[in-house]
Write a structure and sequence with these properties.
It contains 10 helices and no strands. The protein is mainly α. The protein has a single domain, classed as Orthogonal Bundle (MetI-like fold), CATH 1.10.3720.10. It is globular.
Length: 249
């Protein structure tokens, strides 16, 4: 696990490179739709009011709940698909058949069934994020070295102990690793879903600023959403550090 100072340094370098590229683009293109990053950063403090925090709260809630359900469903179905019985074969067939379906195209159906609510947005994000988690968990559990099971069984461990001390930690490790990758996808889908019928959320704020031709606020909203995603990424790191202490051994 990277040390906090090292992680902070990597973040600072990455942020500097993004701002530098942004500034170069602003100078080269010299168009009003791409303001200077310095102008955008100066505008952010004035936007941090109760309205902005309401937008952040709704977006964070939708992403957090979608990731939670995705990891829970991914854990259960991934472990089930890693077995050798009929359930495993049925789940694997279902995954192979439905995985190529462009789930973003299901957004109109989800909105019609569940309405313009938080639930429809959470379901939409979950539908897209859960599949990689299921597959990664299934492959991870399938690849657990058999000697680990044999060793624990030789010491008299039952199925519950084997699941608790081998299968579950192994699956959690793969889930948290995949959650980092899925976080970017979840935020992208969040932005997409908040463009339809939402009155709160960072996606709504950014699109509203765009329609009002307020490009400084639009880019400021993008920066704030990116920072929120970064903090969620750090939160996943902290959860992994607490939940997977055994990986340091």
């Amino acid at each position: 696990m990277r040390k906090p100072l090292s992680a902070l340094l990597h973040f600072a370098i990455g942020a500097f490179l993004v701002l530098a590229i942004w500034q170069i683009g602003h100078l080269v293109m010299d168009i009003h739709v791409l303001p200077s990053p310095l102008v955008v950063l100066r505008a952010i403090p004035a936007l941090l009011n109760a309205v902005m925090f309401t937008h952040l709260y709704h977006s964070a809630y939708r992403v957090f709940m979608a990731l939670f359900f995705s990891m829970l469903i991914g854990l259960l179905l991934g472990i089930a698909a890693a077995g050798k019985g009929m359930l495993s074969r049925v789940l694997t067939s279902f995954l192979y058949f439905t995985y190529p379906i462009p789930r973003v195209a299901l957004l109109p159906a989800v909105l019609l069934i569940f309405g313009l609510t938080d639930l429809s947005k959470i379901i939409m994000i979950t539908l897209i994020v859960v599949y990689p988690i299921i597959i990664v968990v299934r492959d991870s559990v399938t690849d657990i070295p058999k000697p680990l099971y044999n060793t624990l069984t030789c010491y008299g461990a039952g199925k519950i102990q084997v699941f608790r001390y081998i299968t579950l930690p192994w699956a959690l490790s793969s889930i948290l690793s995949t959650a980092r990758i899925s976080l970017g996808t979840a935020i992208a889908i969040l932005f997409f879903t908040e463009a339809y019928g939402a009155r709160h959320g960072m996606g709504f704020f950014i699109l509203d600023a765009w329609m009002r031709l307020n490009y400084v606020q639009m880019y400021a909203g993008i920066v704030i959403l990116s920072l929120a995603g970064f903090f969620l990424f750090v939160l996943i790191d902290l959860v992994e550090r607490v939940a997977l202490k055994w990986k340091k051994v």
